[in-house]
Amino acid sequence: VQLQASGGGLVQAGGSLRLSCEAVRNIFSISTMGWYRQAPGKERELVATIARFGRTNYADSVKGRFTISRDIAKKRIDLQMNSLKPEDTGTYYCNAVLDGEYWGKGTQVTVSS
After folding, report:
1. Phi, psi of 109 (to 5 degrees)
2. What pLDDT, on the 0 to 100 scale, is given for residue 12?
3. CB within 8 A of 19, min separation 6: which ones?
4. Count of CB atoms within 10 A of residue 8's CB?
5. In which residue ranges of the chain is pLDDT below 50?
6. Collapsing DSSP states into helix, strand and coil, what is residue 88?
């Protein structure tokens, strides 16, 4: 599964960004898709996932601020990030679980204070 992520950038604290991840195949049969992030010097961590039948899961640190959604027709998932904080800074990676685990190239999100 090839995954193409886009939408990162630089934003001030309190601002918003929207990340998109497009799969080069039909995504309905994919077990789970989601976003992970990695800050400098830290391990990669889960941000949000969406399962095949739409169940979502969020890290506690982003609940109420981030929303993951899926457009099956466009073979895409999005991550709407609102009320961004400096601690949200990191490289964000799209992930898909099917017959294995697949990762897209990261997209940088930088939140300035």
Report:
1. -120, 125
2. 98
3. 5, 6, 7, 8, 35, 78, 79, 81, 92, 94, 107, 109
4. 17
5. none
6. helix
